[in-house]
Amino acid sequence: MSITTRFPRTNQELADLGGGQPVRFPGTEEEYWALLEEAAYRVDFYNNEIIAAMSYESDIHSDITNKLMFLLQTIFQGQEVRFGNSNRPVCIPDCNNAVFNPDGCVIQLPAKFYEYRPGMTAELTPLVLFEVLSSTTRVRDWGEKLPCYKQIPSLQQILYVDSERPRITVMERLEGHDKWLEIAYEKPGDRFSVQGRQLSVQEVYKGTLAL
Questions:
Q1: CA distance 165 to 158
Q2: Which residues constitute the domain of residue 20?
Q3: Is the pTM of this model over 0.70?
């Protein structure tokens, strides 16, 4: 399927419409997957809307994403997992087949996929995922994405890392339940656990934000 002119293709075309904010279009799942293949920017699908956001990220956002991905790779070294970045979509069938692109995720192996068609797939088995919050993403990350993320059966932890102040919110699924424990960490010495490994707020933000 080719994309009609009502969908922008480049970051500049998208910026002209949204001024740096995510832009929403009514759209079908078929249109979403076709646009995902052609667009130069990040695209999500939620409640029959295609949500487009510029692929540009600030230096702070990039630094935090890279640091956290490195820490997770260290924690999971030698385990049967692989890692996805913001270009790797995650599908949530229990949330009306929503498709989001988290800033990073740890994927449980053997992986399972949602296959729209051969060569076009999304992850179904993230074990840990994280979002780096900013003024343009905060409302969507909390209001739309989080309730859907909590419906992923394989998911054990969700990390929301603020890029504008030192604050890490860790959500952990309670064993044997569909309930989640949520704790926010703000002090440099505050420590939280991922897969039994202790990390500190300072480790995540070192060299990025003043602590």
A1: 18
A2: 11-53
A3: yes
Alpha helices, DSSP H only, in 39-144? 59-75, 138-140
Closest C-alpha to 84, from 107, 113, 116: 107
Would the pLDDT of 177 be above 70?
yes
- Residue 37 CA to residue 120 CA, distance in Å, equals 8
145 domain residue, yes or no: yes
Rounded Cα distance between 160 and 125, Å, is 19
User: How far is Cα 121 from Cα 44, in angstroms, rounded to an integer?
Assistant: 13
User: Got the DSSP string for 128-158?
Assistant: EEEEEE-TTTHHHIIIIIHHHHTT-TT--EE
Distance between CA 44 and CA 86 in Å, rounded?
Answer: 11
Q: Which residue has the tokens 């890392």?
A: 161
Task: For residue 31, report the phi and psi dihedrals to the nearest 5 degrees.
Answer: -65, -35
Q: Is position 5 within any domain?
A: no
Total count of domains within the chain: 2
Q: Classify residue 110: in a domain, yes or no.
A: yes
pLDDT-derived band at 2, boundaries 50, 70, 90:
very low
Q: Are 105 and 132 in contact (CB under 8 A)?
A: no
Q: For 41-74, how does the pLDDT look when each residue is reduced to its tens digit (9 = 90+)?
A: 889 999 999 998 876 678 999 999 999 999 999 9
What are the pLDDT digits (tens) for 122-176? 999 999 999 999 988 899 999 999 999 999 999 999 999 999 999 999 999 998 7
